[in-house]
Design goal:
Structural class: alpha+beta
Largest sheet: 6 strands, mixed
Strand order of the largest sheet: 1-2-3-4-5-6
Number of domains: 1
Distance between the termini: 18 Å
Helix content: 10-25%
Order of helices and strands: EEHEEHEE
Number of strands: 6
Number of helices: 2
Radius of gyration: 14 Å
Length: 110
């Protein structure tokens, strides 16, 4: 499933161009329970195949328990894309989304 183009940001990693997105509006669980985390979707800019979904360990800014916001920077996205390659993500191959989670800045399969 392709991510919508509206609101995405572009990044180049390993000479490939990607689009990434953080949902702006918090979901109910990301804002009302004190456990909301940021989720990120990444895909190739052209001829996308498998999307990369990243469940981060960073609090969502709209979560009621968030006191300090730790923003996601483009350097974080580039690092996570590289880690996803190491875990076996092939962005040009079609298939189910490649789901990962971040624990202490290290990516693991979901």
């Amino acid at each position: 499933m392709a991510i919508p183009k509206k609101g995405t940001r572009k990044i180049a990693v390993n000479e490939l161009n990607f689009r990434w997105l953080i949902r702006k509006k918090a979901t109910y669980t990301q804002s009302d329970y004190g456990i909301g985390k940021l989720h990120i979707a990444v895909e190739l800019e052209e001829n996308s195949g498998t999307s990369l979904f990243i469940y981060t360990d960073r609090k969502h800014p709209n979560d009621i328990g968030t006191e300090i916001v730790n923003p996601v920077k483009p350097s974080d996205i580039a690092n996570w894309i590289k880690q996803a390659f190491e875990l076996g993500w092939i962005p040009s191959k079609s298939g189910n989304p490649f789901r990962t989670k971040i624990m202490n800045e290290k990516m693991e399969l979901e």
